[in-house]
Structure formats: C-alpha cells, structure tokens
Design a protein that fits this description.
It is a single chain. With about 500 residues, the protein is an alpha+beta fold. The chain has 16 helices and 23 strands. β1 and β2 form a beta hairpin. α11 crosses α12 and α12 packs across α13.
Length: about 500
C-alpha cells in the first residue's frame, strides 16, 4: 500500500501541500503566499494563475524536502477557500478575469436588487443561505455582466466557472487536455445556486441570476470512490495519482476534527472564523442569522448537514495590525504585545472591513474602534484585536444555541490562531465553555486527506479517523459572570456603532 495521502490546502492567503501518514500525522509540507489584490475599496481579488503556479511550487517543495516520490502517494485531496469565484477559457485555461474573493463586496448592488424583489431570505428555503455578497452566484453574474465576451462564451460552454477546488482539480487532471470539471457538494452549496435537498443546481435560481448552466461544474460527493481523474505522469508528481476527495475549508476542518456525530462542533480561526455544528442528515433552517449548509457526503450515503456561523475577519485583523498599522512585524508577536497589558483598556474593535457576516448580515457596516481614551496604548489595541475574534465567535455560538436548541458545552478549535494561548483562554472565558485544541491543528488539510483516503480505502471507515484525534491542550473558563456580562454588553454597543456607515 502507498505510504502517504497528499492534501492541497488552498487558503485565502496561501497554498500549502501536506503529506499525512496513516495516523493522520504530518510527514512534510510546503507553503507559499499569494498576492491580495484590492482594486477598489471593498474589492478583493486573486490571480488564479499565480495560485496554480504556487500549487505546483508547494507540491514540488514538499516532495523535495521529504524525498517522497509521487508513486508513494495513494490519493490526493483538496480543500479550499469556498466562495471565491473563477471563470476561465475551457480551451486555453486562461482566466477571463481575476478570481473574485469571498470577502469582496462589489456585488452589493446586485444583491440589493435581488433583495428588493425576493427579500434577503428569498433563496434560503432552497439553498440555506441569505442573499449576500459572500456567495459565489452573484460574483458569477457580475463577471458575466461586466467582462466583455464572457456571457456569450459561457452560453457556448467555452467559459467555465469554478470555486478554487474546481479550478485546481481541472488543472491537476490535465487542464486544457481533458481536465475534469467537478465541484463537491460542500462547495456547490456555497454558490447560492444549489438546492440543499436535491444536491443539484437549481434552474429557477439560475434563471433569476441569468447564469448559463453550461458553465457550471458537475456536483459530486465529497468522498468519491468514483475517481474524478488522475494526475498525468508528466505532472509535478511524476506519477498518476487519484484525485477523489474535496471539501470546502470549513467542512474539511469539521471532518479533520472528526465531528461526525450530531451536536459536535468546531471553530476554525483562519483569515476568517467559522463555527460549524453537525446536525446530521436533517436540514435545520436558521432563524437567527446562521447558514444551513452541507457538511460532507460520502458516495452512496445521504449528505450530512451543518449550521454555520461565518465571520469575515479574524486572522485578517492581525494581518491588518501588522501590514497596515505596522504595530508588529510578524503575526505571532501580537500575543506578547497583548500580554503587556492586563485588559483591553476599555476599547473594542469591530472589524467590519467588508460588512458584517453572521449573525448580522449587514453589508452597510464598516469597522470601528470604540471607547478610545488617552489611556489606550498599542498593547490595548493588540488585546482588543484578539478579543474581537472571541466576541464574534460568541455571537455565533449564541445564535447557534437558539437555532439548534442545544447549548454548546465544549468547542474543538483549529487553524493558525489557536497557537495563541491568550486568545484561547479568553475564548473559553467569554463562551463559558471548555475549549479543546487537538495535537494536529492543521485539521483543514487533514480533512481533505481523510476525504481522499476514505475514497481509495487508505482508511477503512470513520471510526479509524476518530482514533487519530488526540487532545493537545484544553482551556476552562475562569472569568466572573458579572465581568463576562459587562464585556458582552460593551461589545454589543460597539457592534451597533458599525451599522449604516455605507449607504
């Protein structure tokens, strides 16, 4: 049997390739950042060709570092930033426009027009999602309306759409020479175009958004024993490797955290922050600003659904402190800076840089720093940055409790920010629950590896994956209830100050 499973983690700020062994342990990795393009305020783009080049670079880098041959890899799984939209030429593979990133707000006018006719929840019964700039469907429409020649090419089937995993799978399996055009259910469910019940593109919504069906990929299970395609022997791997597993990044983390039972939840602290609660094969509508979404699907089985709370800015706020304000030179430095003070000095930062996502869904919001006095120094600002992440998570958890009727009693955490122990303790304090960090925090990539490994029989079943999950550290709440209530009250006041800034 082949020794390893490869996972390609295509994030918002970087690409990584990671090799895992049968115990779910990391055997090697490589990483490379890609440019964040901001053509206008609120607009965010990526260069798809840079992402594809970096993909090959990190695969090559990982194999060179470890000395592993492509022939030792049993299968390849992909996980990705989910709602980012790419449209490209089927014959050449050349993008017809830059990728429009999930954070981008340029589709606000399109969404407002749709809301005026159908209401913000007009598509929610079918898709589980509100009408918002976050999702891919309005981004596709923007490209069709604003980039010359794309609409007619799409109608002829010559322009293809995909989220980032679709773009990667197409290139990995041959690109213009027969690349496979598929998307898994967890990513398709984030387009605002898929019916949660049928797991198919909804023709009524396609008609409303005027999106040609011919440009859309085939929807497939996340774990698919029907191999989608193979890497060519002349590829960077130098071998034919099955490509058969894909999950959107947050669903991949759910699988990587082995949250396979109803009621289990995880929170990922990355560029954004995403809390998912497994609701099983039941579709649970949200009445409190959350998303109903597909968690994952194994071929031949019913889809597993989740309630999700999505936060746009988490780790990106630390990047802002580093890159825009220059208060730190590297992200890890924020913890020591925040520890230089004992509290936030009375300030609250609400990072509504591109509006607020769940549970508010306010595209008119913009960021604020509230409570400033002459007493405040950069240590207080650093602490308020970390606390903003935890407060936003608390807003999501509260909405999730109301929707599901189940009180959260512990939270599994993962992502780059969970190495910050000050943040993890404050998260436990403000939620008033135990926070648990696993020994492998790269659970997003691990989930993609699990999807591919299950597909080819590298792991026999879900129970084998559970045995791999090991606790590294946990935190318990130690904040007084009165202090918690006052902090949350002040946070809510700060959030309200962000509303209505953009007209």
């Amino acid at each position: 049997m082949s020794k390893y499973i490869g996972a390609l983690d295509m994030g918002t700020t970087s690409n990584r390739f990671i090799l895992f062994n049968g115990k779910g342990e990391i055997m090697g990795f490589d990483q490379k950042e890609h440019e964040q393009i901001f053509p206008k305020p609120g607009w965010v783009e990526h260069n798809p060709m840079e992402i594809w080049k970096n993909t090959r670079d990190v695969i090559r880098g990982c194999l060179e570092k470890t000395g592993v041959s492509g022939k030792e890899i049993a299968a390849l799984g992909i996980t990705n930033q989910r709602e980012t939209a790419v449209v490209w030429d089927k014959k050449t593979g050349i993008p017809l426009y830059n990728a429009i990133v999930w954070q981008c707000t340029r589709t606000d006018a399109i969404c407002k027009d749709l809301i005026s006719v159908y209401g913000q929840d007009g598509f929610r019964a079918k898709t589980g999602l509100p009408l918002a700039t976050y999702f891919s469907g309005p981004k596709i429409r923007w490209i069709l309306e604003n980039v010359s020649g794309v609409k007619s090419a799409a109608q002829r089937g010559e322009a293809l759409f995909g989220t980032i995993e679709t773009w990667a799978i197409w290139w990995l399996t041959g690109g213009p020479q027969g690349g496979v055009h598929v998307t898994d259910v967890s990513n398709a469910g984030r387009t605002l175009l898929m019916d949660l019940r049928t797991l198919e593109w909804d023709q009524d919504i396609l008609n409303i958004l005027d999106i040609p069906r011919a440009m859309l990929p085939k929807i497939v299970p996340s774990v698919d024993k029907d191999i989608w395609g193979y890497t060519p022997e002349d590829s960077v791997f130098g071998a034919k490797i099955p490509v058969c597993g894909a999950l959107g990044d947050q669903q991949a983390a759910l699988v990587g955290q082995t949250c396979f039972s109803v009621g289990e939840a995880k929170n990922t602290y990355g560029t954004g922050c995403f809390l998912l609660l497994n609701t099983g094969t039941e579709i649970v509508p949200s009445k409190h600003g959350l998303l109903t979404t597909v968690g994952y699907q194994l071929r031949g089985e019913k889809a597993v659904y989740c309630l999700e709370g999505s936060i746009a800015i988490a780790g990106a706020l630390v990047q802002w402190l580093r890159d825009n304000l220059g208060m730190i030179s590297a992200a890890p430095e924020i913890e020591d800076l925040a520890k230089s003070v004992t509290d936030n000095g009375g300030i609250y930062i609400v990072p509504a840089f591109s509006g607020l996502f769940a549970p508010y869904w306010r595209s008119d919001a913009r960021g604020v720093i509230a409570g400033l006095t002459r007493f405040v120094n950069k240590g207080h600002i650093a602490r308020a940055v970390l606390e903003a992440v935890a407060f936003q998570t608390r807003d999501i958890a509260a909405a999730m409790n109301r929707d599901s009727g189940v009180d959260l009693n512990r939270l599994k955490v993962d992502g780059g920010m969970v190495v910050n122990e000050l943040l993890m303790q404050f998260q436990s304090d403000i939620l008033n629950v135990q926070v648990i960090r696993p020994s492998v925090v790269e659970t997003t990539a691990l989930g993609a590896a699990y999807a591919a490994g299950l597909a080819v029989g590298y792991w026999p079943d879900m129970e084998a994956l559970r045995k791999n999950w090991v606790v590294d550290k946990s935190w318990h709440p130690r904040m007084r209830e009165a202090d918690r209530e006052q902090a949350c009250k002040d946070w809510r006041k700060a959030v309200e100050k962000t509303f209505g800034w953009m007209e």
